[in-house]
Amino acid sequence: MNDLLKACLSASFFLLASTCFYAQAKRWHVDSTAISSSNPDGSSWQHAFPDLQQAL
């Protein structure tokens, strides 16, 4: 039983670690003083959203 528990915990840890490794957060740039471009997409400070509501 002890070996089975170790195997399950090892597998669970591996799955959790591999999932966290591949998960990526998306970064949005929001600047209330930005001069909005014709198509702000939040990908950089030059293309920042003028307010948080548009970014969400």
Rg, nearest Å: 21 Å
The parts where pLDDT drops under 50 for at least 5 residues are none
Order of helices and strands: HH
Measured distance between first and last alpha carbons: 48 Å
Strand segment count: 0
Total of helices: 2
Average the pLDDT over all residues and give the rounded result: 81
Report the major sheet.
Answer: none
Q: Provide the β-strand percentage band.
A: under 5%
Helix content: 40-55%
Shape: rod-shaped
Describe the oligomeric state of these chains in a short phrase.
Answer: single chain
Please state the structural category: mainly alpha
Overview features:
56 residues, mainly alpha, 2 helices
Short description:
The protein has helices spanning 2-22, 52-55. The protein has two helices and no strands. It is mainly α and 56 residues long.
Task: Kindly describe this structure.
The chain is mainly α. It has a domain at about 25-55. Helix content is about 45%, strand content about 0%. It has helices at about 1-20, 50-55. The protein is rod-shaped and about 65 Å long.
Write the layout of secondary structure elements.
Elements: H1 2-22, H2 52-55
